[in-house]
């Protein structure tokens, strides 16, 4: 039995005070919810205080990224063990916004190049998280051009294979993978439910071919991309969708709580 994981990715939103207010309200709204695991992903600077406030509740904390080294001269970076020390138990890795796959029109090429994550850095981050006991939520997703060119499965398969490279079967079995079609993120355009479930099933098949059926049955695969209160129940009832990675709709307590309760 895979317990659905509902994660709210706040991206570059919310001060420490706003983050604390949010979780104080959310804890009341979802008190007693046990059929889903719930995490919020605040900006780094709020993660510690949020983790302190949700102690003893059914809400956990994730960071939105990590670096792949344990420590050292890596200005601006955060090591997985620092995230763990701050109270996070999960880390998002390889989000399309850190992979630079979102195609923002309001950036110059030099600015855009800042978002330069690759399958190789994703894989290094996954390994460092697992080495210290932080659970990775590894994102994958195709762009609209890749989908139109019928390359969705090939792109997703490569991201999953490369991201999971070198893991043990046990490590792979404990992974969370988020399928997030890039064209559905923050656009209001949700992937059709049967298609989202098909791709999540294809990801599970890829895990099975690499690590065996038992690992594939235990890995949790989330869908992400314009999940809202009115489409969550349908998406979350699918056989291969084990939760949601929610962006915009996780910024309001009422919306996020409604998504959690639709599990
Ligand atoms: C995301 O950023 O992971 C995401 C799915 O965003 P949204 O829900 O806003 O599409």
What is shown here, in short?
With 263 residues, the protein is α/β, with parallel strands linked by helices.
Descriptive overview:
It is a single chain. By secondary structure, this protein is α/β, with parallel strands linked by helices. The protein is built from 13 helices and 8 strands. The chain has an 8-stranded parallel barrel, surrounded by 6 helices. Strand 1, helix 1 (16-29) and strand 2 form a beta-alpha-beta unit. The longest helix has 19 residues, at 193-211. It is globular, with a radius of gyration of 17 Å. The mean pLDDT is 97. The structure holds phosphoenolpyruvate. Residues 9, 180, 185-186, 224-227, 245-249 line the site of phosphoenolpyruvate. Phosphoenolpyruvate (PEP) is lined by residues 9, 180, 185-186, 224-227, 245-249.
Annotation keywords:
alpha/beta, globular, 8-stranded parallel beta barrel, single chain, 8 strands, 263 residues, 14% strand, 13 helices, binds phosphoenolpyruvate
Q: What is the secondary structure topology, with strand pairs?
A:
Layout: E1 5-9, H1 16-29, E2 37-41, H2 44-54, E3 59-63, H3 80-85, E4 90-93, H4 96-99, H5 109-112, H6 119-132, E5 135-140, H7 144-148, H8 152-163, H9 169-173, E6 176-179, H10 193-211, H11 213-218, E7 220-224, H12 229-236, E8 243-246, H13 253-261
Parallel strand pairs: 1-2, 1-8, 2-3, 3-4, 4-5, 5-6, 6-7, 7-8
Helix pairs in contact: 1-2, 1-13, 8-10, 12-13
The structure holds phosphoenolpyruvate (PEP).
Phosphoenolpyruvate (PEP) binds next to strand 8.
């Amino acid at each position: 039995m895979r317990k659905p994981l509902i994660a709210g990715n706040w991206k570059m939103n919310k001060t420490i005070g706003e983050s604390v207010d949010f979780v104080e309200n959310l804890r009341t709204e979802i008190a007693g919810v046990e059929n889903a695991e719930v995490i919020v992903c605040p900006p780094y600077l709020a993660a510690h205080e949020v983790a302190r406030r949700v102690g003893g509740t059914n809400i956990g904390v994730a960071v939105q990224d990590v670096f792949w080294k344990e420590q050292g001269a890596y200005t601006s970076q955060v090591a997985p063990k620092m995230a763990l020390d701050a109270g996070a138990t999960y880390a998002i890795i390889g989000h399309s916004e850190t992979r630079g796959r979102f195609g923002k029109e309001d950036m110059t090429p030099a600015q855009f190049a800042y978002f330069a994550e690759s399958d190789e850095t994703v894989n290094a981050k996954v390994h460092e998280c697992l080495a210290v006991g932080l659970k990775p939520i590894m994102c994958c997703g195709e762009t609209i051009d890749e989908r139109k060119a019928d390359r969705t499965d090939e792109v997703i398969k490569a991201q999953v294979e490369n991201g999971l490279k070198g893991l043990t079967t046990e490590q792979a079995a404990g992974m969370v993978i988020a399928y997030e079609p890039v064209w559905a993120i923050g656009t209001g355009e949700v992937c059709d439910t049967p298609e989202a479930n098909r791709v999540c099933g294809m990801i599970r098949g890829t895990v099975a071919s690499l690590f065996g059926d038992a690992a594939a049955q235990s890995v949790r695969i989330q869908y992400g991309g314009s999940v809202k209160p009115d489409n969550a129940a349908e998406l979350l009832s699918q056989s291969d969708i084990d939760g949601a990675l929610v962006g915009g709709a996780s910024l309001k307590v009422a919306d996020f709580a409604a998504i959690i309760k639709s599990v």
